[in-house]
Amino acid sequence: MKKILIIIFALFTxxxxxxxxxxxxxxxxxQKAQLEGKTVVINSWNETCSTCxxxxxxxxxxxxxxxxxxxxxxxxxxxxxxxxxxxxxxWTTIVVYKNNKEVQRSIGQMDKAKIYELIKS
Length: 121
Hints:
The chain has helices spanning 2-16, 27-35, 50-65, 80-86, 112-120; strands spanning 39-45, 69-75, 93-98, 101-107. By secondary structure, it is an alpha+beta fold.
């Protein structure tokens, strides 16, 4: 019984620290934000990618700090139409749009400082 309780506790603890990974990209929201001249940050990730998970944590934090920026994400392998529309071929891709055009694109692992620099540029 004690082992079962420990396992249950461990599962709840792990779940509490899990990063929210869901597709939030919506073409209508994306287009509207661009027409309004908002900065939009799009993150491409994959469920099995540890680098993606680390970057999602940073982007979640950035979303709290950059209130005027719209953050959208999608899972590369499940949302292939979104990837095709945006010309994103790789996991761990972050794309920044400003004033209705792409201004930055990063592929691969980036630390917090570099991600924040992308968003601010």
